[in-house]
Amino acid sequence: FCSSHEHLSHAFQLDLLGTRHDVKNTNLFSQSTNHDSHHNNDIEISRRKALSIASSVTSASLLWNPESSLAASEGIPIEAKWSASDGLNFESENKFVQFSTSSYLAMKNDQSRTPLFQKAIYNRLYYDENGKPQDPETQVVLDLGTGPYALFAIIAAEAGAKKVYAIEADPQAAQLARQTIAKVGLNDIITIVEGYSSSITLPEKVDFVVAEIVGSIASEENAYATIRDAHKRFVKNPNSPNNWIPNRIQTYAAPASYTLHNIFTPPAYDWSKIRKEQPIRFNCRDEGLQLLSNPQLVEDFSFYNPDSSPSSSSGQNKKLEFITDSNRIQENEKAFEKEYKNGRLPPNEISDISRDTSQSFSGIAFWPRLIIQDAAMNFDQKQKEPILVNSRQYPDGGHQRSHWQTVLPIMTDLPVFQLKGNDRIEVTWEVTDPSSVKESPKYSISGNIYRA
What are phi and psi of 160, to 5 degrees? Predict the structure, then answer.
């Protein structure tokens, strides 16, 4: 998958080559699509090519002196603010994020996601909310955000569901979904309902809901407002966890170091303008981003009990404390050294650059985790476990394949250098949660870095 991080590399190349300097007049990031996994940009150039370009530029013009960013005893301030729609392909008239065909295809083919949703749908069709066997032909299902492939709607219908309602806000995706349903001959079972779910009234209440409306920050596709509305109006028994797939969504976070933030600095590049525009979105396998501490849970939203979640009100405010890990810093240095070697930076500079990067802070990274189904519904295992989807490895946040991305808001114009083990990063995480599904959540994170 390409990422806005890769496209950013291309923007940096143009800056370094002297063809582009005014950030406000450039398209540094492609317009991200489904779960930010693909983009609609016309040029894709990798980070390694950007590093190769960097190797031809005098190092003094790229690398900032680490001494200038030493953490002060009173703490170094860090902050970032953005909207969920920033950097995404936002359709302003109808107020929704538009996803490309390639993005939907990435979701469909994500083997860490789709088979687990399929398994959960089968479980719920053949067993009721209390775990008792039932005839799937008694079940009415709702697929919220069905997309052009109507993937989960078709899975439910082919597994024997009596009726499936599939809601889609994007008119183009809804039309393609109708064509898809017609091709597979399921028009009698599946009904595509076009529009925002909050503006739709179904002819009957459903037995359970499939709602894969999870962003790379779990809430950024407006799951809060959408699920609260669906909970009130669409489900026969909305308070059972077994009537929601997934039944909970989470966001994890950890402080991170980032290669390009360390090598592209003034006068070649001005990160203050990036910070004002949007966060950077990484492929979850991208080794150019490394975590500095153990991850922490920052969002935990229950679909079956939305009012119990901290985010169920108009906003949330959570204080977090991260302690940098010396073992991670050592391992990160090795990973960055490999990255810089692959980028063909001057061999005599790689060791110092890798060390400095591994000891630097660029921002707080975020990624989603889904609790698809409780252990009680996982009937084919002798030792029952919940069905989970992790976009990064759990619990350490390691790299792995996923169509979701890791979101990194840059929190300082220059990296904070010379971090050591047991340094303290204290931040306040805030989410402004709109009551309307037509508005985007807004995020803010701010705080200080303190020496051990």
Answer: 115, 5
| 0.85 exceeded by pTM | yes
Structure-token pair, residue 293? 């501490």
pLDDT digits (tens, 9 = 90+) for 329-360: 999 999 999 999 998 888 999 999 999 999 99
Q: Residue 200 — pLDDT band, cuts 50, 70, 90?
A: very high
Helix (H), strand (E), coil (C) string for the chain: CCCHHHHHHHHHHHHHCCCCCCHHHCCCCCCECHHHCCECCCCCCCHHHHHHHHHCCCHHHCCCCHHHHCCCCCCEEEEEEEECCCCECEECCCCEECCCHHHHHHHHCCCCCHHHHHHHHHHHHHECCCCCECCHHHCEEEEECCCCCCHHHHHHHHCCCCEEEEEECCHHHHHHHHHHHHHCCCCCCEEEEECCHHHCCCCCCECEEEECCCCCCHHHHCHHHHHHHHHHHCECCCCCHHHEECCEEEEEEEEEEEHHHHHCCCCCCCHHHHHHHCCEEEECCCCCEEECCCCEEEEEEECCCHHHCHHHCCEEEEEEEEECCHHHHHHHHHHHHHHHHHCCCCHHHHHHHHHHHHCCECEEEEEEEEEEECHHHCCCCCCCCCEEEECCCCCCCCCCCCCCEEEECECCCCCECCCCCCCEEEEEEEEECCCCCCCCCEEEEEEEEECC
Inter-residue contact 8 to 43 (CB < 8 Å)? no
